[in-house]
Design a protein that fits this description.
- Its cofactor is Zn(2+).
- There is one protein chain.
- With about 900 residues, the chain is α+β, with helices and mostly antiparallel strands.
- The protein has 28 helices and 33 strands.
- The N terminus is likely disordered.
- The chain binds tryptophan and zinc ion (ZN).
- The site of zinc ion has 4 residues, from helix 3.
């Protein structure tokens, strides 16, 4: 069943304040999986600032039983699936409404609104799910006080939860109520309806009492299915750390007596920040050393932090409309990234986190910003808001907040946050309001100086380019750096105005020392000195010339340190200059980046050589990486000063996705073959070094998921993979044998999974037995089974084996397309995570994609639309891939009954 009525585009410019306010809501639920009855009593009043209008309430897939106005039955009208009340009393008096509806939670496969999962009830209301529970003004600027009564069978649903404080509970009396109980909850804070939540079921909780800095007591609870309780310790620890961090860094305290997290195995995204009752995908709650990897532990910490931080940035101050989504998401991602960095501790561990975040930005957000779905951080229009929970809103939005923080400094940013809450607590506001508060709290900062121009980061889409050119004058002892910015056109935005771009930089001497910086003062350019050798210059013009005085020797410039702005840096550097930065830069991010630039350079050279040579292309086994680069990678591996986590990232070649982004047109099989050959070379030529690194790092003692030991496990796993890759070429079976033994002996999931993955990814003949054994061991653990499915769906394609393997996985008894985690673990892992297997010359991968988009759309449009994005960049593909991808897209487009979600993605992909 699709939403009724015509799809229509919503424009930011059309925003109007609501004609009615809702002051209080009193909801009573009679919970039954097949048919739940909802009584909605609300007190509404006309907004005196807006001309009188009928009350237009949103609804979706509801069955309406009756409407009462001030205690009397009332007439009403339907407008599509919305309910319209035209004859409400005039004047400013409040009006009492009673609306009685039913819905079918068990049939709700979209997982939006009220649904069931393993026999329990859950809700998901953001963005527009509340209208699937009752008729309402389903928009974030309507904020109300909620009272919620839940009634259900006590044996089946012993736990009844909603937002806020539990004020009453007990058994229900009277005929028809045998075995039933109730709970009544009152939320002390007003909120938009997208933050409403209820949970009912057979759940158990880990509980923890804490005292805040202010001296208040709070009860923390993490609810899970019976049997999962021992896997909640890390989530609880992460929650306590988040609460302490927000108090220490921003002076923001928990504003509720009770804070609850509930986990469900059926969830469209990661988690949801409902006030006082966060609902999570089990993937971001459950962890034990036997079942979760270090990456899982880190993700749990960051998602628990993210949702907790929304309690202020999102819940206390919310969005005026959905175009302002990044107001809460970009800011909250920035906060969770900073939290993870502060938790990681050392400068090196902070850099590792920064590198991880930048990798996501560049491999996922940059392509989005260059493709048919490109949109500004604050979009101007949408067809389906669910499609705008994107890496641009979240990750680029976080970078836009990070640049504001850079421009006002860490202390200045904390002051800005304080002003933001003083001004806007309890309000629904805009991105403009946020930036204004940060600037107003720092009137002398470059942000305040350039605020209107800075806000172009919110309105212009596309990834800016910064081209750099340096000239050294030995006689004058000056180094002159010219930085020129530009931004490619994006759909609907042919021309761009210059951005405000903070470029953090330094200059390196021949011996690797950082040179002291003396920037010649200029009216046009502000700069911030962090230390004698590390400054940020603030670009505002299309081009700037920066003169450094007193430079004793021709320097190697280190630009865009710590990735100070979400841009592409274009600079011509010799291999030697990059090797120099890799070895010596004081900025750890740029050390890593120098290695990436080199790796990318060699990949692009090999790809170019292959396409010009055509059929005569030399065999790829030839050495694609020069000896100097291989030696530099060896030096990194053996460097006693570097942390293992940093080494692991520095010796990882740029991903296929990142290489692909640099090319147009792109032959995905060439990219795949070239990267494979480069990896093979690194594996073989550094075999002794990998073995050494493995011995150094393979024993981390009793399992603790801290940054240092996790880094060692990551490097040991990487080394095993490379040793198995080397064995593939040499035929030597010693390392695959050792890897299988490691798989069997492992004392934690990280080591076990890394060993299994090394066998599978290197195509070892020992992989099959290990895969069987893994299933045997973990067949009752959903989250581990997801890993098992994902690993196989991403396995190397040997003579076209990947697609048939994926089809076989989908016939497994424990495959279930209705469960988003499981669908993602198989279908997404193949379409997004296995480029070598997906981009088949016969187009069968794309045809499979089309079938799955269509199948998923009938079940869960949100998940289907995410999958639909896999072919966003199809117009860049070389033939025969482009034609085949176009056919697959046309096949989806030809379906008459598509959801708005999928329709919007497909229409944009074809139009671009
Ligand atoms: N607001 C949530 C977050 O970022 C994510 C979210 C938005 C979501 N829409 C959703 C989660 C729909 C599940 C389903 O934390
Ligand atoms: Zn969020």
């Amino acid at each position: 069943m699709m939403r009724e009525g015509q799809a229509h585009t919503v424009y930011r410019a059309d925003y109007q304040a609501p004609a009615w306010w809702i002051d209080t809501v009193d909801l009573t639920f009679d919970l039954d999986p097949a048919k739940t009855r909802v009584l909605n009593k609300m007190r509404v009043r006309r907004n005196p600032d807006v001309p009188a209008q009928p009350l237009h309430l949103n609804g979706d897939e509801l069955n309406l039983a009756r409407v009462m106005v001030n205690g009397a039955a009332s007439s009403f009208k339907m407008d599509g699936s919305d309910l319209v009340l035209e004859n409400l009393p005039e004047g400013s008096d409040p009006v009492d409404l009673e609306i009685f509806t039913t819905c079918m939670p068990e049939k709700n496969t979209k997982l939006m609104g009220l649904y069931t999962s393993s026999g329990s009830f859950f809700t998901q209301c953001e963005a527009e799910g509340f209208r699937r529970i009752t008729y309402f003004l389903d928009r974030p600027d309507v904020m109300a006080m909620y009272t919620v009564t839940l009634r259900a069978n006590k044996a089946q649903f012993p736990v009844l939860l909603s937002n806020g404080n539990l004020v009453e509970q007990g058994d229900l009396q009277g005929p028809g109520n045998e075995g039933r109980h109730f709970a009544k909850w009152v939320d002390p804070h007003k909120k938009p309806c997208y933050l409403f939540a209820l949970v009912a079921g057979n759940l158990v909780a880990r509980e923890q009492k804490i005292k805040s800095r202010a001296g208040n007591e709070h009860l923390l609870q993490v609810f899970v299915r019976p049997g999962d309780l021992e896997k909640t310790e890390h989530a609880m620890n992460s929650l306590m750390a988040s609460i302490a961090w927000d108090e220490a860094r921003f002076g923001l305290s928990l504003d509720l007596d009770r804070f609850m997290i509930v986990a469900t195995g059926d969830f469209n995204m990661g988690a949801m920040e409902n006030k006082g009752l966060n609902i999570f995908n089990t993937k971001y709650v459950l962890a034990s050393q036997a079942t979760a990897t270090d990456a899982d532990y880190a993700n749990i910490e960051s998602v628990v932090g993210h949702e907790y931080f929304h309690n202020w940035t999102g819940d206390r101050v919310t969005c005026r409309d959905w175009f302002q989504l990044s107001l809460k998401e970009g800011l909250t991602v920035f906060r969770d990234q900073e939290f993870s960095m502060d938790m990681a501790g050392s400068a090196s561990a902070r850099a590792v986190k920064r590198i991880d975040d930048v990798r996501v930005l560049r491999t996922v957000q940059f392509p989005e910003d260059a493709g048919p779905m490109a949109h500004p951080v604050r979009p101007d229009s949408y067809l389906e808001i669910n499609n705008f929970y994107t890496v641009t809103i979240y990750e680029k939005g976080s970078e836009v907040v990070r640049m504001q923080s850079t421009l006002v400094g860490r202390e200045g940013f904390a002051k800005g946050m304080k002003l933001y809450f003083e001004r806007h607590d309890g309000q629904a506001v805009t991105c403009d309001d946020f930036a204004q508060a940060i600037a107003d709290a720092n009137p002398d900062s470059p942000l305040a100086q350039h605020l209107p121009q800075f806000k172009r980061w919110y309105s212009q889409s596309g990834t800016p380019r910064v081209a750099a050119q340096g000239v050294y004058d030995a006689e004058a002892q000056t180094y002159t750096l010219t930085l020129t910015q530009s931004c490619p056109a994006t759909p609907g935005q042919p021309g761009k105005e210059p951005f405000v771009i903070p470029v953090t930089l330094g200059l390196l001497a021949d011996d690797g020392r950082s040179l002291p910086l003396t920037i010649r003062p200029s009216q046009a350019l502000s700069s911030i000195a962090h230390s004698a050798t590390n400054h940020t210059v603030v670009l505002t013009e299309a081009s700037h010339t920066i003169v450094f005085d007193g430079v004793e020797q021709a320097p190697a410039p280190s630009l865009l340190r710590n990735f100070s702005a979400p841009v592409v840096l274009q600079i011509e550097e010799s291999d030697d200059a990059l090797l120099h930065l890799l070895a010596h830069d004081e900025d750890a991010f740029n050390r890593w980046e120098a290695g990436q630039r080199l790796g990318l350079r060699f990949a692009l050279q090999a790809i170019a050589a292959r396409s010009t040579a055509g059929a005569d292309a030399p065999a790829l086994q030839a050495n694609l990486l020069p000896a100097s680069f291989v030696q530099a990678m060896r030096d990194v591996l053996r460097d006693p000063q570097l942390d293992a986590a940093f080494k692991d990232l520095a010796v990882t070649l740029p991903s296929e996705a990142y290489i692909t982004e640099q090319l147009d047109p792109v032959d995905p099989q060439t990219v795949h073959a070239v990267r494979e050959a480069m990896r093979q070379q690194l594996a073989t030529e550094l075999a002794a070094d990998w073995a050494w690194a493995y011995d150094e790092c393979s024993n981390t003692g009793a399992y603790v998921p801290d940054a240092v030991s996790a880094g060692k496990r990551a490097l040991a796993g990487h080394a095993l993979l490379m040793l198995c890759v080397a064995a593939r070429a040499s035929g030597d079976q010693v390392w695959p044998g050792k890897t299988l033994q490691r798989y069997k002996d492992a004392g934690n999931m990280t080591d076990r999974y890394n060993a299994l993955s090394a066998l599978v990814v290197s195509g070892s003949p020992l992989a099959d037995a290990a895969i069987q054994s893994f299933h045997q061991l973990f067949k009752n653990d959903e989250l581990v089974l997801d890993k098992w499915f994902a690993l196989q769906a991403g396995a190397p394609d040997i003579n076209g084996s990947a697609l048939p393997a994926v089809r076989a996985l989908m016939k497994q008894p424990d495959f279930n397309i209705k469960n988003p985690n499981r669908a993602r673990s198989v279908i997404f892992s193949y379409c997004n995570g296995n480029p070598g297997g997906f981009h088949r010359a016969d187009g069968a991968g794309y045809a499979f994609w089309a079938d799955q988009v269509i199948a998923l759309d009938a079940i869960n449009p949100q998940v289907a639309a995410r999958l639909a994005r896999s072919l966003d960049r199809w117009k860049k593909l070389a033939e025969p891939y482009r034609q085949a991808a176009g056919d697959a897209i046309a096949k989806v487009a030809a379906k008459p009954k598509l959801s708005n979600d999928v329709r919007e993605v497909i229409t944009r992909a074809m139009a671009d």
